[in-house]
């Protein structure tokens, strides 16, 4: 195959000639910069989220319903770190590992995305209960209930996304137009269902709950300021608890906002109707933006949570290998 002017086109599979997809031609320096940047983000994402997982699993003081939700989010972010290898492979616009792996990649990425959105909804509900109904929070929100909600979230996400991509699962690669391409097709009804149940409805729930949390937090802050001169022990304890809960709400609010910002580009493409055919090479940017959120989350924890910084020190120095280290008070 030749281009105008006699310049030879680079093919994904040169031996297949006209049936092969063409590579995306970039300057070598640009390709190397993209490779190094995405590879570094991928490795750091895996390492940081592994630290979060170890921290939340190892230290008993961190075994709370809220942290179980963070653990679920960390697991999805951990796997996203590995999935980032796909945009790295697609820099040249060629898919070399087969139609089955193409379908597996999209199914797994769709499930993780859906489960992450569901986890964000659960985090919003948790913060709403903690701030707006603190007297009943301990009885209504327990570790067993949190585990159940997380399990339902992941299972329902897997079932729903397998239904959305059912045609691609039945016949991988059926929509490819050339060798070296990775395309999945979502029909109109399934696409609308995915948009509604995996983005629009969850976002509405998250925004409404956090607006309510913000309003209640502001009113509580005013009450605290009016009672700041109180010297009763009971009042002092109450203020401490409320401050702790609101700090957690603010931190998780940052996590939720960062998540929505990173997820928005993909669903903007969906809303404008440009994703009838989701081509791997052209979708690499919006996918990478979403994946970047998994890199941000541990950094947010490190910035706002002292326990995470303390746990990193204990993990890096191998002090968690000492007997009884799981009982350490890192709060």
From TrEMBL:
<feature type="domain" description="G-protein coupled receptors family 1 profile">
    <location>
        <begin position="48"/>
        <end position="301"/>
    </location>
</feature>
<keyword id="KW-0807">Transducer</keyword>
<feature type="transmembrane region" description="Helical">
    <location>
        <begin position="103"/>
        <end position="125"/>
    </location>
</feature>
<protein>
    <submittedName>
        <fullName>Trace amine-associated receptor 8a-like</fullName>
    </submittedName>
</protein>
<feature type="transmembrane region" description="Helical">
    <location>
        <begin position="252"/>
        <end position="272"/>
    </location>
</feature>
<feature type="transmembrane region" description="Helical">
    <location>
        <begin position="146"/>
        <end position="166"/>
    </location>
</feature>
<dbReference type="InterPro" id="IPR017452">
    <property type="entry name" value="GPCR_Rhodpsn_7TM"/>
</dbReference>
<feature type="transmembrane region" description="Helical">
    <location>
        <begin position="284"/>
        <end position="304"/>
    </location>
</feature>
<feature type="transmembrane region" description="Helical">
    <location>
        <begin position="195"/>
        <end position="218"/>
    </location>
</feature>
<keyword id="KW-1133">Transmembrane helix</keyword>
<dbReference type="GO" id="GO:0001594">
    <property type="term" value="F:trace-amine receptor activity"/>
</dbReference>
<comment type="similarity">
    <text>Belongs to the G-protein coupled receptor 1 family.</text>
</comment>
<feature type="transmembrane region" description="Helical">
    <location>
        <begin position="68"/>
        <end position="91"/>
    </location>
</feature>
<keyword id="KW-0472">Membrane</keyword>
<keyword id="KW-0675">Receptor</keyword>
<dbReference type="InterPro" id="IPR050569">
    <property type="entry name" value="TAAR"/>
</dbReference>
<keyword id="KW-0812">Transmembrane</keyword>
<keyword id="KW-1003">Cell membrane</keyword>
<dbReference type="GO" id="GO:0005886">
    <property type="term" value="C:plasma membrane"/>
</dbReference>
<dbReference type="Pfam" id="PF00001">
    <property type="entry name" value="7tm_1"/>
</dbReference>
<keyword id="KW-0297">G-protein coupled receptor</keyword>
<feature type="transmembrane region" description="Helical">
    <location>
        <begin position="32"/>
        <end position="56"/>
    </location>
</feature>
<dbReference type="InterPro" id="IPR000276">
    <property type="entry name" value="GPCR_Rhodpsn"/>
</dbReference>
């Amino acid at each position: 195959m030749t281009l105008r002017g006699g310049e030879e086109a680079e093919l994904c599979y040169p031996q297949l000639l006209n049936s092969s997809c063409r590579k995306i031609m970039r300057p070598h320096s640009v390709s190397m910069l993209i490779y190094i940047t995405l590879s570094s983000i991928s490795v750091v994402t895996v390492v940081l989220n592994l630290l979060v997982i170890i921290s939340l699993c190892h230290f008993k003081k961190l075994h709370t319903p809220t942290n179980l939700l963070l653990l679920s989010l960390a697991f999805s972010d951990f796997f996203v770190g590995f999935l980032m290898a796909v945009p790295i492979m697609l820099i040249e616009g060629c898919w070399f590992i087969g139609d089955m792996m193409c379908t597996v990649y999209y199914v797994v990425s769709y499930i993780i995305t859906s489960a992450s959105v569901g986890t964000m909804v659960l985090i919003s509900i948790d913060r709403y209960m903690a701030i707006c109904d603190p007297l009943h929070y301990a009885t209504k929100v327990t570790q067993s209930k949190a585990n159940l909600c997380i399990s339902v979230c992941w299972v329902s996400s897997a079932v729903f996304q397998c239904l959305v991509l059912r045609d691609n699962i039945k016949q991988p690669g059926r929509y490819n137009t050339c060798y070296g391409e990775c395309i999945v097709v979502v029909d109109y009804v399934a696409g609308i269902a995915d948009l509604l149940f995996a983005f629009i409805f969850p976002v509405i729930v998250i925004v409404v709950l956090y607006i309510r949390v913000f309003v209640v937090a502001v009113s509580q802050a005013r009450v605290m300021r009016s009672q700041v001169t109180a010297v009763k022990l009971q009042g002092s304890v109450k203020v401490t608890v409320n401050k702790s809960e609101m700090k957690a709400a603010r931190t998780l609010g940052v996590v939720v906002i960062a998540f929505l910002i990173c997820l928005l580009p993909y669903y903007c493409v969906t809303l404008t109707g440009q994703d009838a055919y989701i081509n791997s090479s052209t979708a690499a940017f919006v996918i990478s933006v979403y994946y970047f959120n998994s890199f941000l989350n541990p950094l947010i924890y490190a910035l706002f949570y002292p326990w995470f910084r303390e746990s990193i020190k204990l993990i890096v120095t191998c002090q968690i290998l000492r007997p009884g280290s799981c009982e350490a008070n890192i709060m």
